[in-house]
Design brief:
Distance between the termini: 37 Å
Structural class: mainly beta
Radius of gyration: 13 Å
Number of helices: 0
């Protein structure tokens, strides 16, 4: 699976962005999908995940209530809608695909394929 993330940019605190991750190469609907991020000077962390069919979603506590993950299997795309952005959300965001799980796993090691990352910068 090849993954291409897009949608990052510069936004003021309180603003919104929608990230997209387009997949190609294999049957997208057979992969749980996740979003991770790496802030400057910090380790990569889990942000959100979604099951094959989209019926199950998971969120890190830090983004719960502000971010929404969704997927469109007809378009081979997963989205991350980010609202009420905070400066601490500044990071490179990565999408990932897990082929061995129906539900999106929380651990980065459980994912098989990764996109190249898209930078989100939130100014105060």
């Amino acid at each position: 699976v090849q993954l291409q993330a897009s949608g990052g940019g510069l936004v003021q605190a309180g603003g919104s962005l929608r990230l997209s991750c387009a997949a190609s190469g294999r049957t997208f609907s057979n992969y749980a999908m996740g979003w991770f991020r790496r802030a400057p000077g910090k380790e990569r962390e889990f942000v959100s995940a979604i099951s094959w069919s989209g019926d199950d979603t998971k969120y890190a506590d830090s983004v719960k209530g502000r971010f929404t993950i969704s997927r469109d299997n007809a378009k081979n795309t997963v989205y991350l809608q980010m609202n009420s952005l905070k400066p601490e959300d500044t990071a490179v965001y990565y999408c990932a695909a897990a082929g061995s799980y129906y539900y999106g796993p929380l651990g980065a090691d459980e994912y098989d394929y990764w996109g190249q990352g898209t930078l989100v910068t939130v100014s105060s």
